[in-house]
């Protein structure tokens, strides 16, 4: 997200808004007619993979799916650079999710077609950020937003990407996490250099009454080198009906999903829960990113 200016982000969000009727199936589009989009997912995914598939299909394009890594030549030892070079000749754009930090940027150096980063390690998840911003713009407001980012801020690529984008809109950010899962110092310093004052706490109770958006995240078991460390922190933060008694009535709760225990199911039917709409907004925002990256709209 550090590569994007505020004007460029707004342009993507405006484009997504125009495509929303297509995402809902209310209008038809052939913007990607004749185009092939390759999906290379080296990590599990439900929303990113399927919303990209839905976006391509709604725009009349075709999908080339690597499928399970076990069924590919990665199992014979083929490296990522060679895989990318080869698939560049089969498709017009590649969406890549990979567990290694920096993999998408590296892939872009070997690709003959555009690469969209569908999440690399614990560093970036920029397409998630576009749909998060789109959701916030639809359900609340972006300029000067008071937002709490909560949960696994150490390994959470969604929050790492999101806080850079929010800094362009003058957001007031509070980071809520167990001390072991604090936002990396390098990111906090970057944000401070951009003129933001960041609050940090381990208490949702002390934060919930002061924010317009709560962005909750899962503690990601798969990123912990030591399983015992995960056990110690996994249930420290939880959004419940009780907690929300002190919330602003206009509060919106977002979550990139999947969730485990960090949002109680009783919250799903409240006016605060925006996370399922958020998951839908992955379709128009990914449509916009695909169409702009391929160059079928400018
Ligand atoms: N939010 C998100 O990236 O979900 P998936 O891992 O299911 O794609």
List keywords for this structure.
298 residues; alpha/beta; Rossmann fold; five-stranded parallel beta sheet; four-stranded parallel beta sheet; binds phosphoric acid mono(formamide)ester
The span between the termini is 20 Å
Query: What is the name of the CATH superfamily of the largest domain?
Result: Aspartate/ornithine carbamoyltransferase
Instruction: Identify the bound ligands.
Output: phosphoric acid mono(formamide)ester
The topology string of helices and strands comes to HEHEHEHEHEHEHEEHEHH
The CATH topology of the largest domain is given as Rossmann fold
Tell me the fraction of residues in β-strands, as a range: 5-15%
Oligomer kind: single chain
- Going by helix content, strand content and strand pairing, the class is alpha/beta
Structure annotation, total helices = 10
CATH architecture of the largest domain: 3-Layer(aba) Sandwich
Lateral arrangement of strands in the main beta sheet: 7-6-5-8-9
Number of domains: 2
Taking pLDDT < 50 over at least 5 consecutive residues as the criterion, the unreliable ranges are none
Categorize the overall geometry: globular
